[in-house]
């Protein structure tokens, strides 16, 4: 089984990397980009029988800083 975890900064948390991308896009002539939020995707190859609850525990303990980040789990 595979899991994909999408981790993003929570709304209201300053995203300097996203702001740098937004600025760079404007400098390259791409108009109309009002904001950019940058995150990360973590792909996990899991043993059969691994539950979504276990993946949630992985996120809560290691993969996401839940004080400033939110995450979504996608199981395949």
UniProtKB/TrEMBL annotation:
This enzyme's EC code(s): 6.3.5.3
Highest taxon above the source species: Bacteria
SUPFAM superfamilies registered for this protein in UniProt: PurS-like
Catalytically driven reaction(s): N(2)-formyl-N(1)-(5-phospho-beta-D-ribosyl)glycinamide + L-glutamine + ATP + H2O = 2-formamido-N(1)-(5-O-phospho-beta-D-ribosyl)acetamidine + L-glutamate + ADP + phosphate + H(+)
Enzyme class: ligase
GO biological process: 'de novo' IMP biosynthetic process
Cell compartments where the protein resides: Cytoplasm
UniProt-recorded Gene Ontology molecular function terms: ATP binding; phosphoribosylformylglycinamidine synthase activity
Coiled coil ranges: none
Gene3D superfamilies: Phosphoribosylformylglycinamidine synthase subunit PurS
Main location, first listed in the record: cytoplasm
The keyword Transcription regulation belongs to this UniProt entry's keyword annotation: no
Entry keyword set: ATP-binding, Cytoplasm, Ligase, Nucleotide-binding, Purine biosynthesis
Cellular component GO terms held in the UniProt record: cytoplasm
Record keyword Repressor present: no
Pathway entry: Purine metabolism; IMP biosynthesis via de novo pathway; 5-amino-1-(5-phospho-D-ribosyl)imidazole from N(2)-formyl-N(1)-(5-phospho-D-ribosyl)glycinamide: step 1/2
Subunit structure: Part of the FGAM synthase complex composed of 1 PurL, 1 PurQ and 2 PurS subunits.
Function as written in the Swiss-Prot or TrEMBL entry: Part of the phosphoribosylformylglycinamidine synthase complex involved in the purines biosynthetic pathway. Catalyzes the ATP-dependent conversion of formylglycinamide ribonucleotide (FGAR) and glutamine to yield formylglycinamidine ribonucleotide (FGAM) and glutamate. The FGAM synthase complex is composed of three subunits. PurQ produces an ammonia molecule by converting glutamine to glutamate. PurL transfers the ammonia molecule to FGAR to form FGAM in an ATP-dependent manner.
Family designation: Belongs to the PurS family.
PANTHER family the record matches: PHOSPHORIBOSYLFORMYLGLYCINAMIDINE SYNTHASE SUBUNIT PURS
The protein's name in its UniProt record: Phosphoribosylformylglycinamidine synthase subunit PurS
Protein source organism: Donghicola tyrosinivorans
Species classification: Bacteria, Pseudomonadati, Pseudomonadota, Alphaproteobacteria, Rhodobacterales
